[in-house]
Structures are given as structure tokens and as C-alpha cells.
Amino acid sequence: MLAVMSSAAAHERSSDHPDLSATTLRKLERASGGMAAASITAMERQLPWFRRLSADQRSGVLLVTQNGVAGFVAWLRDPQQALRLTAEAFRGAPRDLARWVSLRQTVELVRIAIEVFEQQLPTLAADDAERAVLTEAVLRYGREIAFAAATSYAAAAEARGAWDARLEALVVDGIVRGDAEESLLSRAAALGWDPAAEATVLVGNPTSDDPPAVLYEVRSRAARAGRPVLIGVQGSRLVVVLAGPVDGPAGADVLTRMAAAFGAGPVVAGPTLSSLAEAHRSAQDALSGLRAVVAWPAAPRPVRSTDLLPERALAGDPEAERQLVDNVVRPLVDAGGSLLETVDAYLEVGGVLESCARQLFVHPNTVRYRLRRVTELTGRNASDPRDALVLRVALAVGRLARSRGFW
């Protein structure tokens, strides 16, 4: 009789898990709902943040827990299906689960559920051997669940990252095109951009043909500089929108560090605007400067678009012509005192002070005084070769604009 019973028990064990009887497996199936409910109760008791979740959110966690318990029983029947079953435990979760439960919090939930399993499973075993099997099984299955959770969150992060990258590209494209302010700001806000932050657009060549590698390099340097950025790779052109002020030595250092994220060739920085809503003006000036910088082989890297006004004007940029007139010619005309005539004469004689004084029939000290006034009004020193070029082109553009009746 004992031999028959032993044979029956052996047959019963071999039907599913080799070390668990069919009776124990059926007990596990019947107890799965209770263990899931006990896990949720333990989570509510131990985790304050879990108690603050809404009823719908807690029910989502309960659904995942129930799927996990059911998967555990199915895994005991067929251990070869571990990966599929653990993945299905999270596939049935609400799609937005990763938005209101972080990966760290999910690990806490898994830990509590495993503790409940470890407490209740031994009571379902028929003997010590089965208890040992169940204890080992729950630890192994918990490991699989943890990896499945990490994979699920990684997939969600990749999906969000891909969506954010597309949205970021749309924002940068909108800045370059000068799209409507409201749509651009709403998209930028979704990326966490402060709409009131100052914005400077930098343009140049990307470091490689691999956009992810380019984005990583720019973001790494921006993170080290403590500056938010928006990035767009547009074919062979890299466009970076940099947040925050860039005036003074500290700002210049930030621009230099960001320029290192670009590939070979010039890097042009547009003017710094007060908000993202005006960043399209910075982008237009930067792109105009990038087209014209070839005319200044010795240009620094990065170079400000305002330092490329002569080259931009020669390339036919009407905005550069306007800035030259407004920032150089008009202040000299409005100031009077023969400032415009003096700087014109000084440039014509090649920067020789005495020759300029003789041509104007004034003392050299008078020329010196007038040139200092020119520097104060325009920020350009006629004795500096580069500034002299800016002044000369500005005077020429001003004459052309006046002849056409523009001012």
C-alpha cells in the first residue's frame, strides 16, 4: 500500500514541477488572489507614498501584483517560460504606470511583495522539501521580476527620450523658421525649458554623422556648464539654443566650452535675447554670420554675429546693414561735432593722425578727442584694424541707405 502511495505521489509530482505536487500547485493557484491582496495591504502599511496614490493608481499596482502571482504559479509549472511570464506581468500594467511610480518605488513594491510571498508560501508546502523549493523559487522569480521591471522602465525611458528628441527638433526648427510664439513656447515648456530664460543660438558643423553621438556631446558639455540647451541637427548643420546670460568673462567661457562640442569649422553665436520667444532673431543672425564668416579667415571660435556685421553686409544681409546704420552711423550723425567727418577722414588717410588733422585743418588733439568720442558712441576704435573695417563698411552702407531714402 505504501509503495502504491509513493508511486502515486511520484507520478503526481512529475506531472508539473518535479519537486512540487499537483496538490501544492493547486493550493498556490487558489491562494494567489489572497497573496496579491496581502501584498497591497503591506504596501499601504509600509509605504507612505503608496497611500497617497489614487484608487485607480493603486488598482493598477494590484493588477501588476496579481499578474505577478499568476505568473509565479505558471512559472512553477514551466520554469522555461520565466522571461515571457515576467514580461507579461508588466505588459498588462496601465500604460502610464511608469509616470507616477518611479523605478526606485517599483523596487520597493517588489521587495514587499517578495516578503509577503516568503511568509505565506511555506504554509502551502506539503513537507520541508517543498518549503525549500518554494523559498528558492520565490527568490529566483523575484530576481526575474526585478529585471523585468528594469527592462520595462528602460523601454519607457527610451520611448520618452525618442519623443522628447522629436519634440526638441521641432522646437529648434521652429526657432530657425520663426514660428508662432505660442506653439513654440508650449512645446519648449513640455521639455522643461524656462520660457523667461535668456537665449543664445549657436550654429556650426556637427562633430560626426551620428546624431545621437552629437547630441550626447553637446548635452554633456552643457551639463558641465550648468546650462539648459535645445539641440537640432539639420543635415550638415548643428543648431544649439543655450539658456542663460553669456556676457562678461564667465559667459564667454561658457560659449568657448560649448563651441568645443561642434565639429571643425567656424562656430557663430547670435545675439543673446531676453527670452525664447525672441530666439528666432538670434538664430537668423547666427545663420547669416555662418554664411558670411568665410570672408574673415582669422575669425575667433566662437565668433559673435555682431562681430561679423561687415561680412554679413557685404553678403547682402539687410539686417546687418540696418544694425550698422543704427549702431554706428546714426549715433555719429546725431552727436554732430564733425565726428562723422573726422572718422571718415582718419580712415581715408590710413589712420595717420597728423595727416587727418591737416586735412581737417584742426589740431591733432582735436582729432584725438573726436576719435575717443567715436569709440564711446559706437564701441569701435578707429585705430584698431578690425574696428576700422567695421567703421568703413558702416559709413559706406550708411551712404547707400541715405541715397535710397531709408534714413
- How many β strands by DSSP? 5
Q: What is the CATH class designation of the largest domain?
A: Mainly Alpha
Question: Which overall shape is indicated by the principal axes computed on the Cα atoms?
Answer: rod-shaped
Radius of gyration from CA coordinates: 36 Å
**Strand/helix succession:** HHHHHHHHHEHEEHEHEHHHHHH
Kindly report the average pLDDT value.
84
Short note summarizing the structure:
InterPro entries: CdaR-like_regulators, CdaR_GGDEF, PucR_C-HTH_dom, PucR_C-HTH_sf. Helix content is 67%, strand content 6%. It has 407 residues and is mainly α.
Please characterize this protein's 3D structure.
Residues 339-396 form the PucR C-terminal helix-turn-helix domain. One of its GO terms (molecular function) is DNA binding. It comes from Streptoalloteichus hindustanus. This is DNA-binding transcriptional regulator, PucR family. It holds the Pfam family HTH_30. It is a single chain. Helix 12 links the parallel strand 4 and strand 5. The longest helix has 50 residues, at 128-177. The termini are far apart. The protein has 18 helices and five strands. Mean pLDDT is 84; it is low at 1-16. It has three domains: 2-159, Orthogonal Bundle (Globin-like); 194-314, Alpha-Beta Plaits; 318-403, Orthogonal Bundle (Arc Repressor Mutant, subunit A). With 407 residues, it is mainly alpha-helical. The chain has a five-stranded mixed sheet with strand order 2-3-1-4-5, with helices on both faces. The chain has helices at residues 2-14, 22-46, 48-51, 55-77, 82-91, 97-100, 103-120, 128-177, 181-190, 211-225, 248-259, 279-292, 309-314, 318-335, 339-348, 353-360, 364-378, 385-403; strands at 199-204, 229-234, 237-243, 268-269, 303-304.
